[in-house]
Amino acid sequence: GFGSLLSETSARGTFPDLTGFRLARVHGFRRVFRHPGSIFFVRGIVPEGTQEMSSLSPEQCEGSSIVVSVMELPGTDCGELERREEEFRLVQVPYHALDADSTAAPAGRGLMCMPLEKDEDYVAKWGREQLEKNYGSYGITNIWGWAPDSGILPCPVYLRHCVLAAQKVGEAAYASFLDDTYLADRRTTIREYLKARPDIMETQPPEHLVGRYSG
After folding, report:
1. Paired strand residues for 90
2. Spatial contact of 40 and 158, defined as CB atoms under 8 Å apart
3. Could you read off the pLDDT tens digit of each residue along the chain, which spans 215 residues?
4. CA-to-CA distance for 113 and 92, rounded, in angstroms?
5. What value, to the nearest 5°, has the Cα angle with vertex 158 and ends 126 and 41?
6. Would you say 160 and 200 are in contact if contact means Cβ atoms under 8 Å apart?
């Protein structure tokens, strides 16, 4: 988990039977808010008239690293995970102990959600009808490929949720989320963005989503 699943509380809300929850570091990646999350439209948490609709994904970046959560998911198959994370592909990546550098032996390998190469890959996997239903019906013409200057921004309720999740598990995860996560421009860190937009941490989810979007 690299976003909301950084907290065990949040992770158990999605995977109640998880085991072995712990933190680790993945080298060679940063996080970027770079693609729209269709679920935010479904749940009505995209502020009207804005481009504050972005979800989070990892992106390869030499010299960077991110703190992640690692867990085992007994009884969960890849097909189930793929359906939950439909806009991603599941890729095995090595992870290290929190204080280990990239030259150390990995502590293990785990599946991480990586962006699809292009929207056509989504269509090939799930069909154009699903693309239209989950994105086109909300006026979204593409999932991936948003330019750094596109103006797409994090969904406020989701960003707050991720920050709270990282904060719950300690300074290493919290600092990593603030400093190793970027807007789509790849220049502005989340720490800088929240300094300019302190209102985001005051943005409450709808009452029926409080349990899901509170870290």
Report:
1. 113
2. yes
3. 999 999 999 899 889 999 999 999 999 999 999 999 999 999 999 999 999 999 999 999 999 999 999 999 998 877 888 888 999 999 999 999 999 888 899 999 999 999 999 999 999 999 999 999 999 999 999 999 999 999 999 999 999 999 999 999 999 999 999 999 999 999 999 999 999 999 999 999 999 999 889 98
4. 9
5. 50
6. yes
